[in-house]
Amino acid sequence: MDSNTHFTDQTIAIVGLGLMGGSFAHRFHALGCHVIGLNRTKSVAETAKNLHLVDSIEEGDLKKADIVIFCTPAEATLAFIRDHLDLFKEGAVLTDIAGVKKDFSRRIRTFIRKDLDFVSGHPMCGREGAGLFQSDGGIFQNANYILIPEEGNTEEHLKLIENMAYALGCSHVAIVSAEEHDRAIAYTSDLTHVLATALINSDSFHGNTKYFTGGSFRDMTRIADINAWLWRELFLANREKLLDEIDRFSSALSEIREALDEKDGERIEAFLDKAGQRKRAMKNGNG
Prior knowledge:
This protein is α/β, with parallel strands linked by helices. The protein has helices at residues 19-31, 42-50, 74-83, 104-109, 155-168, 178-200, 215-221, 228-237, 239-261, 265-283; strands at 11-15, 34-38, 67-70, 93-96, 117-124, 144-148, 172-175. The protein has a 7-stranded mixed beta sheet.
C-alpha cells in the first residue's frame, strides 16, 4: 500500500508529545494532516506548535479529531479518556501505543461512550533518548505495527488504523491477541532493553571503554540511553513474561559458558551456527 494512502483528509489528535508522540506529529504533518497536539506540560505542546509540528494545542479541538492517538503511559491514558469523554468527536476512533496490553482495552470499554471505538495498537519502532526533541517521523519507515483487536471493534475502524500504519510508512501490520502481544514483546523488546542496560552496567565498563568499541557494541547498547521511569513501568507491567524470558536467556548464556569452560570447540561452533541460521531465516522471511 502507498505510504501516503488517502490520509491527508484526516484530523489527528496526539496526546503526549514525547519521543513517540512527537514522531507521530512529524509524520502526520509531512502527510498534510491537520494535527492537534496535547501534552500534560503545556510548554511542550507550545514548542511543538512553534516548530509547526501541530496546528492546535487546545483541548477543545478534540471535538474535531477523527483519530486520537495516546502516546502516554497506560494509567494516564485511562485517566485522560475518562476525564475527557464529553470532548471526543462523535464516532471518533481512539488508539494507543502502550507496550503492554493485558486487559487494557477491556478496562477502557467499561466506561467509554458507545459511539467511540478504542483500537489498541503498538508501533514497533523508536530510538534512544526521550522527549519531543528526540522525535523523528522517519522511525516509522519500514517498521512493523501491531494491532490488538477486541470484541466490539468494527472492521471499518480496524482497517482505518491499519491504513494509518501504512500511511505512516510501516511495511507490515500484524494482528494478534493481547496475550500473544505481551509474550512476544517480553522477548523482542523488554528483554533487549534489559540486556542493553545490563551490558552498560557491567563492572567492565569504565572511562576508556569508548576507545574500544566498534559497531557491535554500539548496536547492542544503543537503547541503553533509556527513559528509566517509562521502562520501569513496562517491565513491572509485563513482569511474569519478562522473568520467563530472562530465564530462557540465562539458560542460553549458561550453555555457551559451559562449552567455553570445557573448551568444547564443536559445541561452541554449533551454538553460533544455530544462531546464524535463525538470523538468516528471519531476515529472509522464513523465521
